[in-house]
Write a structure and sequence with these properties.
Elements lengths: L1 H4 L3 H9 L9 H7 L4 H4 L8 H18 L1 H14 L4 H17 L4 H5 L7
Helix pairs in contact: 5-6, 5-7, 6-7
């Protein structure tokens, strides 16, 4: 991380320990490196209410029903990146994925080849 951002490893260690914060000029490069948006790094995405989390879960479930596993996984990644600290969203998404894996198992040969299961 330090090399990618042009800073020293001790500087990154200080950020991780909370002893200091990165320079504001590093916000965009840091967000790209961590594959998140600057709002998340700055804490602008607050926790979702349970109702908001369930709306996202319903959206994910509908995507699973209509569009399949690949698009569902993409949507889950997007929502989890937006709200990485929302326990309700994380738990419900994991539960939904587990159910999908049980209902639509992927054979080992197909999984090893990167081929999704027939739906």
């Amino acid at each position: 991380m330090a090399a990618c951002l042009g800073v020293t490893a001790p500087a990154v260690n200080k950020w991780e320990s909370g002893a200091s914060l990165p320079d504001l000029a590093l916000l965009l490069p840091l967000s790209r490196l961590l594959e998140t948006d600057p709002n998340t790094l700055l804490g602008f995405h607050g926790d979702l209410t349970k109702e908001e989390a369930m709306l996202y879960i319903n959206e994910i479930a509908q995507t699973a029903k209509d569009k399949g596993m690949e698009e569902t996984l993409s949507l889950i990644r997007k929502r989890v990146r937006e709200y990485p600290s929302c326990g309700t969203l994380l738990y419900q998404a994991a539960t939904l994925l587990r159910g999908m894996a049980i209902l639509f198992p992927v054979s080992e040969a197909r999984a090893d080849a990167g081929i999704p299961a027939a739906g």
